[in-house]
Design goal:
Blueprint (H helix, E strand, L loop, with lengths): L4 H5 L11 H9 L3 H11 L5 E2 L1 H14 L16 H12 E8 L6 E7 L3 E5 L6 H15 L6 E5 L3 H17 L7 E2 L3 E4 L4 E5 L14 E5 L8 H8 L8 E6 L7 H14 L8 E5 L14 H4 L9 H11 L3 H12 L6 E3 L3 H5 L7 H6 L8 E7 L7 E7 L8 E10 H10 L4 H7 L3 E3 L6 H14 L1 E7 L5 H9 L7 E3 L4 H17 L2 E2 L4 H9 L1 E4 L5 E3 L9 H11 L11 H4 L8
Parallel strand pairs: 4-10, 4-11, 5-8, 5-9, 9-10, 13-17, 15-16, 15-19, 17-18
Antiparallel strand pairs: 1-2, 2-3, 6-7, 7-8, 12-20, 13-14, 14-15, 20-21
Length: 585
């Protein structure tokens, strides 16, 4: 990550502690400016000095004490990469005197303690972040040997924090000379020094009153609030050398807590915040870097070649090259760039490839060639000026090897002229083609939709009908009064919790060419409009509010296809049968 030249030049005119070779290699050969900045800033702390012997001992200790825990690395000695070695040396080696009051004499005294009290590490996935954080927590907790020490690990929730905690337990089980350590489900206890390390939930409630020596926090980008980290830090007041170890990938900018910590990290690194007690380490592409250029990838991935491999990144980049949503994932998870909460979703190139006959939509709209087949139905009822959509999704069978979409759209007649003239939307053209149907007045009469659905029930084997309760409850109630079994209807609210997995399935079908929309012009227009919204975990679903224009048909298609995932659909799902889930995007 590039750092402001002002921050580097600030050291000019000061006598600095001589740079060792590992600092020069990291800064000059690797381009890691954060190493030199940390060295220079520590040099300027009054009375500071570097304990080379202790720093070297800590690095030497790693492969002797710690073992890696997963996959092909499991059981192998933890040999630090240069970037990890730099972090360990900086955290352990730099010391400075602080004034205290001697508890026995009551007189002022000076003790030398570590300068760094907090690590803020930002590194992409698959670079060994979790293993490193677990080993660091053990380094400072067990090997420091503070009598009555307290350690805590947390993340967004307990399940996420267990990743680090379980690695700590695994490392202890493989470590020599730690046989007296007592390991429990949610704690690690050192009886000789009465020290306890605990797994915490991500909630701040009930966490007051603790006195940590070591705090480990994972995945900062997903924290709901900074409260837990603040409470734990505030409890370190009695400790001479407490340390906070925080690590994360980038995330979604809409997460206020995570993005604020990222901004704070940048401010410290660039010198806008004067905080010599925090070591900020960022591996990421800058906003203007070309994400698709392989030459830039090592900048964000310090362990590239070991983990992740170049082959892995190339495959992920190839998937992202023609998929705007996948591009966001690649940039966030593998290049450590923060992304907007909303992004354009579907590639029109891939969409257009999902039509073997671009006139087939006309027959499928009327059900020609689809009679008697099983399908899933969904409808999206509009307000006054919107489009109302009805989508039928026909799974693959003996006759069709791909999903087939049948789409019908209704638009109020008074909207057609207005929208065609003012917004230059091709409603008038689509009306002439039969791609939309008009209804009298300035709103869509739901009776048109009800009639169409009854026709569908007579013509096809409609397994389930999906609907959003907003503006559709009356239609569903009327159909049930007219004799349609209520078990046919599946409520599907418009949000990530409900549509997240159906959205992923629909995307897989489009990207793999396992969908055929018959070239419907309105669906194509909507496919070009649609944007998706991410949550903190980068799950996603279409968003009407942030899309360029109407997307009702795409939302309806996601709903209809997603109904195949419903619990009450008998037998293995059609996409499991045909291996669709094996296609990654």
């Amino acid at each position: 990550m590039e750092v402001s030249a002002v921050a580097v030049q600030a050291a000019a005119g000061h006598r600095l502690w001589p740079e060792p070779e590992w600092v020069k290699e990291a800064a000059d050969t690797k381009g890691w400016a954060w190493v030199r900045l940390a060295w220079e800033r520590c040099s300027r702390v009054a009375g500071s000095w570097f304990d080379e012997a202790k720093a070297a001992a800590a690095v030497h200790l790693f492969p002797k004490v710690f073992r890696l825990t997963d996959d092909r690395f499991a059981g192998k000695p933890f040999r630090l990469g240069l970037w990890q070695e730099c972090i360990v040396r900086l955290l352990v080696g730099w010391k400075a005197p602080i004034e205290i009051v001697d508890e026995q004499t009551g007189q002022p005294a000076f003790v030398h303690v570590r300068i760094f009290r907090r690590l803020m590490l930002w590194v992409p996935r698959k670079n060994g972040k979790s293993e490193f954080l677990a080993a660091l927590a053990l380094l400072f907790f067990i090997l420091d040997g503070v009598v009555g020490g307290q350690g805590y690990v947390f993340a967004r929730d307990e399940s996420q924090a267990k990743i680090i905690f379980n690695k700590m337990k695994a490392m202890i089980s493989m470590a020599p000379n730690m046989g007296d350590t007592q390991i429990y489900k949610k704690s690690i206890y050192l009886p000789k020094i009465r020290a306890l390390f605990e797994l915490l939930t991500g909630k701040p409630e009930g966490k007051h009153g603790k006195s940590p020596t070591v705090i480990a926090g994972d995945e900062m980008h997903e924290w709901e609030t900074p409260d837990l980290a603040n409470f734990l830090r505030q409890g370190t007041g009695t400790r001479l050398e407490p340390i906070e170890l925080y690590a994360s990938t980038a995330g979604v900018k809409s997460n206020k807590t995570g993005y604020a910590l990222w901004e704070e990290s940048l401010s410290i690194l660039e010198g806008r915040i004067d905080d010599p007690s925090t070591l900020v380490v960022i591996f990421a592409l800058d906003p203007d870097d070309d994400w698709a250029d392989e030459a830039n990838w090592p900048k964000a991935n310090p362990s590239l070649g070991i983990s992740p491999t170049m082959q892995f990144l190339r495959r992920e980049a190839a998937i992202a090259a023609d998929n705007p949503r996948a591009e966001q994932h690649f940039r966030c998870y593998h290049l450590n760039q923060w992304i907007d909460a909303v992004t354009r979703w579907l590639s029109l190139k891939k969409w257009d490839a999902c039509a073997t006959n671009k006139e087939a939509w006309k027959e499928w709209r009327d059900g020609v060639g689809l009679e008697g087949r099983s399908c899933f139905a969904a409808f999206d009822v509009s307000s006054n000026e919107d489009i109302t959509a009805r989508i039928l999704a026909f799974p693959p069978d003996d006759e069709f090897d791909r999903w087939v979409l049948s789409a019908r759209f209704w638009v109020p007649s008074e909207t057609i002229a207005k929208r065609s003239r003012q917004d230059r939307v091709s409603y008038d053209k689509w009306l002439g083609l039969g791609a939309i149907e008009e209804t009298p007045g300035d709103y869509v009469d739901q009776d048109y939709v009800r009639k169409a659905l009854f026709e569908d029930l007579e013509r096809f084997n409609v397994t389930l009908i999906g609907y959003d309760p907003w503006n559709a409850t009356k239609l569903v109630t009327d159909m049930q009064k007219d004799g349609v079994d209520e078990s046919r209807f599946q409520l599907m609210r418009q949000g990530i919790p409900t549509l997240g997995e159906p959205t992923k399935l629909f995307e897989r079908l489009v990207m793999s060419g396992q969908l055929d929309h018959g070239g419907h012009p309105v669906l194509r227009w909507m496919a070009g409009n649609v944007a998706v919204r991410f949550d903190e975990n980068l799950n996603y679903a279409p968003t009407k509010k942030k899309s360029a224009e109407k997307i009702d048909g795409i939302v309806g298609s996601v709903m209809a296809v997603g109904l195949s995932m419903a619990d009450d659909v008998e037998g293995p799902s059609v996409y499991e049968q045909r291996g669709i889930l094996e296609i990654e995007v």
